[in-house]
Specification:
This protein is an alpha/beta fold. It has ten helices and ten strands. The protein has helices at residues 45-57, 79-95, 109-117, 135-144, 170-188, 207-215, 217-221, 235-241, 250-262, 273-287, and strands at residues 2-3, 24-30, 62-66, 101-105, 122-125, 148-152, 195-198, 228-229, 267-270, 294-295. Strands 7-6-5-4-3-2-9-8 form an eight-stranded parallel beta sheet. It has a two-stranded antiparallel sheet with strand order 1-10. Helix 1 (45-57) crosses helix 2, helix 2 (79-95) runs parallel beside helix 3 (109-117) and helix 4 (135-144) packs across helix 5 (170-188). The longest helix has 19 residues, at 170-188. It starts with a strand and ends with a strand. It binds 6-hydroxymethylpterin-diphosphate (HH2). 6-hydroxymethylpterin-diphosphate is lined by residues 28, 30, 32, 35-37, 66, 69-71, 105, 124, 126, 150, 152, 198, 200-201, 228, 230, 269.
Length: 296
């Protein structure tokens, strides 16, 4: 019996047509010295390009390139330093025409636009277009080019977000926020079909908030847009399991990711791509058997 382990990167460039008939794995490619779990691992463009090739070989159909750590307590990276980190990597990936949707993880419109020029087609903004006043226009430019934007919920900014986060009801509050940001993106010229939504696990949330949010994920899915979830290696996995080192948290991250899929999430943003791809293939075969390609 042979099972197709990974979904095809059917439309590797666009967002509206991106194949989400089966769940997608977004591989994290941090070009930073200080990311919480993989800082410093792929700083040189050559190292980043070979890591990108590995992530794709491991099953990622989306690559998320970031040049600024947004971990709790991080000081902001000047946008020009962020661009100096990510643009050479994007140029290399464009030269190699990598078969993946390229996502730029940035809060800065100029970085997003420079990335768009170099082949990125997803603007992954953890501030949901609030950090930079020019971001809404950048999101519209992505939509115009056949790309899109991922709008993520965060309470506060990375420097202060873990100082006593508060919600009336974390699921209702996050859903209301994302609904409002979706409407704002549409008003700015990024149509609904170009938008993905993300509850922002770990961004201004206690561990209990993260758990409640995943348990109530259907409310976010009900907003009608593809939902991306980034649970990979995050602090609440350590809290639930007692595993301190983020790089040892792959099994717990996979479990949380599959749970999110069962609640309707469609894209998992992960560091451990091979492990997640294998797990997603089995989950899909069991949960969505009509999507499984099995040769008997
Ligand atoms: N999490 C991180 C960064 N970007 N983007 C989305 N859409 N969703 C997430 O959950 C998310 C994200 C944080 O993870 P990482 O990139 O590994 O760490 P750092 O911010 O330290 O670079």
């Amino acid at each position: 019996m042979q099972t197709a382990l990974r979904p095809s990167a059917a439309d590797a460039t666009g967002v509206a047509q991106f194949d989400l008939s089966r769940p997608a794995v977004m591989g994290v490619l941090n070009v930073t010295p200080d990311s919480f779990s993989d800082g410093g691992l792929a700083e040189a463009p050559e190292a980043a390009a070979s890591k990108a090739a590995q992530l794709i070989a491991d099953g990622a159909t989306v690559l998320d390139i970031g040049g600024e750590s947004t971990r709790p307590g991080a000081t902001p990276t000047p946008p020009e330093i962020e661009r100096a980190r990510v643009l050479p990597v994007l140029e290399r990936l464009a030269e190699q025409s990598v078969p993946a949707l390229i996502s730029i993880d940035t809060r800065n419109a100029d970085t997003a636009l420079a990335a768009l020029d170099r082949g990125a087609r997803l603007f992954n903004d953890v501030s949901a277009l609030r950090h930079d006043p020019a971001s809404a226009e950048a999101a519209a430019a992505y939509a115009e080019a056949g790309g899109g934007v991922c709008l993520m919920h965060a309470q506060g900014d990375p420097q202060t977000m873990q100082h006593a986060p508060r919600y009336d009801d974390v699921v209702d509050d996050v859903a209301a926020f994302l609904e409002a940001r979706l409407a704002a993106a549409v008003r700015a010229g990024a149509p609904e079909r170009s938008v993905w939504l993300d509850p922002g696990v770990g961004f201004g949330k206690t561990y209990r908030h993260n758990v409640a949010l995943l348990q109530g994920l259907e409310r976010i899915v009900a907003l009608g847009r593809p939902v991306l979830v980034g649970v990979s290696r995050k602090g609440f996995i350590g809290w639930l399991t007692g595993v301190d080192a983020p790089s040892d948290r792959a099994p717990g991250s996979v479990a949380a990711g599959l749970y999110a899929l069962s609640k309707g999430a469609r894209i998992l943003r992960v560091h451990d791509v091979a492990e997640t791809t294998q797990a997603v293939a089995v989950w899909t075969a069991l949960a969505e058997p009509e999507k499984n390609e099995v040769e008997q």
